[in-house]
């Protein structure tokens, strides 16, 4: 993995010192090498974490005639096949790198090259003959790519903080996005909490000429489902087994040591089991646990490691270590942390970096194979639609007092319009509660989410599939961003076999009953997993890698102290209702109501503003 930056000005030459500052601010993404390229108003910068062709993959990289120049972050898993095709067409290669494959593929096929790539990538391609800069991001959004546009030009980078070194903008909070962040733990779509900072959307290309950005264009569409898998369930299990083996084998290509993050959950465990079978020697596996036994899953990770014959490493993160790490990791993330377990992913990444440079992980399986318990909500609410509203209201009241948060969510949705509960399916805080605590901040009605939901409902055969498609464009992107930022902060490359092109296409072709029934989530995936893993792992209850925030906020330890600091801070004036916040903290500590999700969002928002916002 690497870090890329660039600056394309409208009426001035690019200053090499500016590119150097932008580039070297993300040295953690590429400690092995650095490079830059300049062409009048354009400057490109690159920090390299060497993975493939350690001696020959220096970037920026240009074609032999100097016309095309690329800076690339990611890995292309089908680069060998593409290379053979290009060589058959007469292309001559100077390196063994996948970077040169992208470069020569664009030289021959133009923008159509992006759709041929199977991998995780974000890259910028400069054409000196036409003065055209092209930004490209992979179909799932595994690798981040941000940009900003001002009257002076366009700047881009792998991390937002680099944009502020460009001189084109200052860090300011976008008040229209606060409610969405607090409600969903992320701002979905191209916009962000920073005013003027935009993401290149997954599966899109962005053309920039004369320092002006055009409208992004898709090269892959989440809404275009592949042809339906028409064979039997048994055939689907066999097909997924073959495809997953091929994906893991492709993603094990590396000229540096490789391991896996193995939490003990089914997804990372299955990836680990297949990788262990394909490796020529025992692989390293890594897990992180908690001092609180109710949240510690180390037992399952050790069980998988023993079954797969791996060299297992584990650590635990204390509450004090968690609180101490939070401000630094918000800086690495550029934004308030969406997930509390980001701290633990960074910790296990630092542990892994002692032995390996590449890890395989399990992200993406839940969205593709119906793994989230909340995907049952459409099935459970459908029969209720025929009941009188008064009966649904009574049912909602009864469910709202139950300890299981999933049943409480079901109760909250019981009286709502279907589109509303589909839109808020992955919300962690009730929008009404957000509106009360943040009365000064308006919302656009979650416009991007609404657009994506409408598109999904128009193309999906059922509500569960529509939810998964919405999550692929929103929630999953935030998960991948967490994984990228926290691992790259430790100079570790994370790869995601479940988001291999072949797996994405196969999973999206499967009928719902192959993915999920009332009795089984990830039905087809679990049948594959039973071929490799103990049943205890395959059929264990899904935990979601939780963090004991509720307990920590209610206690008197370092996290509770941090909450008190935020509550007393002058920085919350004008941001939220101080009196209501104090009331929510009191209710939480009296154990009358669990407000941990809302309190987590508040802490992160304040610490983020303290670090970044002017």
Helical element count? Answer: 27
Helical fraction: 40-55%
Low-confidence stretches: none
Overall pLDDT metric:
93
Number of domains: 4
Short description:
The protein has 614 residues and is of the alpha+beta class.
What does this molecule look like?
This protein has 614 residues and is an alpha+beta fold. It has four domains: 2-218, Glutamine Phosphoribosylpyrophosphate, subunit 1, domain 1, CATH 3.60.20.10; 233-319 and 329-370 and 476-537, HUPs (Rossmann fold, 3-Layer(aba) Sandwich), CATH 3.40.50.620; 373-425 and 427-472, no CATH class; 549-611, no CATH class. The chain contains 27 helices and 18 strands. Strands 4, 5, 6, 7, 11, 12 and 13 form a seven-stranded antiparallel β-sheet that branches. Strand 11 and strand 12 form a beta hairpin. It is globular, with a radius of gyration of 24 Å. The protein starts with a strand and ends with a helix. The model has no long low-confidence stretch (mean pLDDT 93).
Please name the defining characteristics of this protein.
Glutamine Phosphoribosylpyrophosphate, subunit 1, domain 1; alpha+beta; 4 domains; 18 strands; 15% strand; single chain; 7-stranded antiparallel sheet; Rossmann fold; 614 residues; 6-stranded antiparallel sheet
């Amino acid at each position: 993995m690497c870090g890329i930056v660039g600056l394309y000005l409208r009426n001035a030459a690019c200053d090499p010192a500016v590119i150097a500052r932008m580039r070297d601010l993300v040295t953690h993404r590429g400690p092995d090498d650095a490079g830059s390229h300049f062409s009048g108003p354009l400057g490109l910068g690159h920090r390299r974490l060497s993975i493939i062709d350690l001696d020959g993959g220096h970037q920026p990289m240009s074609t032999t005639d100097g016309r095309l120049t690329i800076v690339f972050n990611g890995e292309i898993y089908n680069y060998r096949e593409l290379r053979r095709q290009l060589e058959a067409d007469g292309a001559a290669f100077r390196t063994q790198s996948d970077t040169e494959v992208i470069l020569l593929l664009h030289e021959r096929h133009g923008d159509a090259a992006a759709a041929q790539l199977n991998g995780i990538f974000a890259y910028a391609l400069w054409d000196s003959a036409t003065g055209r800069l092209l930004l490209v991001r992979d179909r799932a959004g595994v690798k981040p790519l941000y940009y900003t546009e001002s009257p002076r030009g366009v700047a881009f980078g792998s991390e937002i903080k680099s944009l502020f070194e460009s001189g084109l903008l200052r860090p300011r909070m976008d008040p229209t996005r606060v409610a969405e962040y607090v409600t969903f733990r992320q701002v979905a779509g191209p916009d962000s909490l920073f005013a003027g900072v935009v993401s290149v959307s997954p599966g899109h290309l962005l053309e920039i000429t004369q320092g002006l950005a055009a409208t992004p264009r898709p090269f892959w569409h989440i809404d275009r489902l592949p042809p339906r898998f028409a064979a039997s369930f048994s055939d689907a299990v066999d097909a997924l087994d073959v495809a997953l083996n091929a994906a893991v084998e492709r993603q094990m290509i590396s000229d540096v040591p490789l391991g896996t993050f193995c939490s003990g959950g089914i997804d990372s465990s299955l990836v680990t089991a297949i990788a262990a079978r394909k490796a020529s020697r025992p692989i390293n596996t890594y897990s992180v646990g908690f001092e609180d036994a109710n949240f510690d899953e180390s037992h399952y990770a050790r069980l998988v490691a023993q079954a797969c014959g791996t060299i297992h490493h584990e650590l635990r993160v204390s509450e004090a270590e968690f609180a101490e790490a939070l401000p630094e990791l918000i800086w690495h993330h550029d934004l308030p942390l969406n997930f509390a377990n980001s701290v633990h992913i960074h910790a296990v990444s630092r542990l892994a970096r002692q032995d390996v440079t590449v890890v395989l992980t399990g992200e993406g399986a839940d969205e593709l194979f119906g793994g989230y318990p909340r995907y049952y909500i459409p099935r459970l609410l459908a029969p209720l639609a025929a009941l009188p509203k008064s009966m649904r209201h009574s049912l909602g009241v009864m469910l709202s007092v139950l300890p299981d948060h999933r049943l409480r969510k079901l109760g909250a949705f019981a009286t709502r319009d279907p589109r509303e509960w589909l839109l808020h399916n992955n919300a962690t805080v009730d929008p009404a509660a957000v509106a009360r605590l943040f009365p000064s901040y308006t919302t656009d009605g979650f416009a991007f989410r609404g657009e994506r939901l409408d598109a999904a409902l128009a193309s999906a055969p059922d509500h569960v599939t529509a939810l998964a498609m919405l999550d692929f464009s929103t929630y999953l992107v935030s998960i991948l961003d967490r994984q990228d930022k926290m691992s790259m902060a430790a100079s570790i490359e994370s790869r995601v076999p479940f988001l291999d092109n072949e797996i994405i296409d196969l999973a999206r072709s499967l009928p719902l009953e192959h993915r999920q029934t009332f009795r089984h989530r990830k039905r087809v995936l679990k049948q594959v997993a039973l071929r490799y893993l103990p049943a205890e792992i395959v059929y264990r209850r899904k935990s979601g890698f939780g963090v004991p925030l509720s307990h920590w906020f209610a206690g008197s330890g370092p996290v509770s102290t941090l909450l008190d600091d935020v509550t007393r801070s002058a920085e919350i004036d004008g941001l939220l209702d101080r009196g209501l916040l104090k009331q929510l903290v009191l209710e939480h500590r009296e154990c009358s109501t669990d407000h941990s999700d809302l309190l987590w969002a508040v802490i992160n928002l304040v610490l983020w503003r303290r670090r970044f916002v002017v």
